[in-house]
Amino acid sequence: MAYALSQVLANPAVAADHLLHADTVFGVEQAIGRTGPGGAALLELALRPLPALERENYPVERVRVVIRPDHTVHAFPLDAANRAFKHRNPPPLQDLCLQYPGDDAALRWLPEDGLEPLVTLIHRHLLYEEAWRRTGTWPAEDAPHGQPADGSHPLRTPETQQEARRWARHPSPHPQRRPRR
After folding, report:
1. How many domains does the chain fold into?
2. Which of 129, 130, 159, 172 counts the most CB atoms within 10 A of its CB?
3. Basic residues: which segments have biased composition (predicted)?
């Protein structure tokens, strides 16, 4: 069971401690949680690269995650001065552009997924940004910015199409029955 965002909002310091000590997320080297303006949860994380990337001198990434009471999430890379980012929103926010909201739910993090998948998404995104800075190539299928003409951006690679089918979020096969009166 994932760590619920309601728990993060109720006590960000405990959520940060959970990330540090549970075996549910890789690479959380430091975590501090506090309550911010408007009741938002603020988590400041230091995320260690995967061992193979650490050997390639990928940096420990520092990020501030803001989870608002409506479960809107923003991730702000710290130590970002003088570093290019391919998927970052324009000023004034300049938070990471983690996903396209019009994509199929199978390809997006949703609030009910919880804290651990969110931190994993952010960590992976920061690793991809570093790979892009080093090679000029985004290491996965790359969603363009902006609104598509129709619906969502098309999935171009067979691998992403397969994963979208694999992770499709289907309604429960057993609809809830209404109690008899």
Report:
1. 1
2. 129
3. 167-181
Domain-embedded: residue 177: no
Q: Are 103 and 143 in contact (CB under 8 A)?
A: yes
Q: 70-85: buried (b, 16+ CB within 10 Å) or exposed (e) per residue?
A: eeebbbbbeebeeeeb
Terminal Cα-to-Cα distance of the chain (whole angstroms): 34
Spatial separation of the C-alpha atoms in residues 67 and 37, rounded to whole Å: 11
| Strand-pair partners of 73 | 67
What tens digit of pLDDT does each residue of 136-148 get? 999 987 776 666 6
Task: Look at residue 174 and tell me if it is in a domain.
Answer: no
* Confidence (pTM): 0.84
Could you give the C-alpha distances from 94 to 64, 73, 132, 138, in angstroms and in order?
12, 13, 18, 19
172 occurs within a structural domain: no
Q: Which residues fall within 8 angstroms of residue 134, CB to CB, at 6 or more apart?
A: none
**What is the span of the domain harbouring residue 155?**
5-166
Residue 143's Cα: distance from chain center in Å?
A: 15
